[in-house]
Structures are given as structure tokens and as C-alpha cells.
Amino acid sequence: GGVTPAANAAQHDEAQQNAFYQVLNMPNLNADQRNGFIQSLKDDPSQSANVLGEAQKLNDSQAPKADAQQNNF
Fold first, then answer.
1. DSSP line for 32-59
2. A GO molecular function for this record (predicted)?
3. What is the pLDDT of residue 9?
């Protein structure tokens, strides 16, 4: 079996698109942070999941405190 390089690339592409979308919609990142994550996604699409995870952590850490409590299920 094994995954063909093309299929692997397509998978990375999908992960990258998803990560782009999520990062662009994170309300608590500033422009520099957002641009940094977007650049990381462009530089290495295979790391999309890791980059997205870092972006989510930063976004969460910068959330206004009232919102953070509300969303704490």
C-alpha cells in the first residue's frame, strides 16, 4: 500500500486550507501574530496541524476573560 506523494500532498493541502481558514477567523490574534502563522503555513504545509494548534493556544490565551469563562464548558 502506502500513500502516494500526490495523495499525501492533497491531504496537506486540505489541512493547510483548513488551518488558513481557522487562523484568519481567530478573533484574539493581532495582525503580526496572524501573519506569522499564515507565513508558517505557507513555508511548511506538512506542519499545518501543529501551526494551527499553536495559533489556537495563543488565541485562547489572549481571549477576553469574560468570554473565556462563558466558553468553559
1. HHHHHHHHHHHH-GGGHHHHHHHHHHHH
2. immunoglobulin binding
3. 81
Determine if the pTM surpasses 0.85. no
**CA-to-CA dists, residue 32 to 7, 12, 29, 38, 43, angstroms:** 33, 24, 8, 10, 16
Q: Which domains does the chain have, with CATH numbers?
A: 28-62 (1.20.5.420)
Nearest to 13 by CA among 52, 51, 44, 53: 44
The residue type found at 10 is A
Give the integer Cα–Cα distance in Å for 19 and 38: 9
Query: Which residues, 6+ apart, have CB-to-CB distance to 47 below 8 Å?
Result: 40, 41
Q: What is the mean pLDDT of residues 44-51?
A: 95
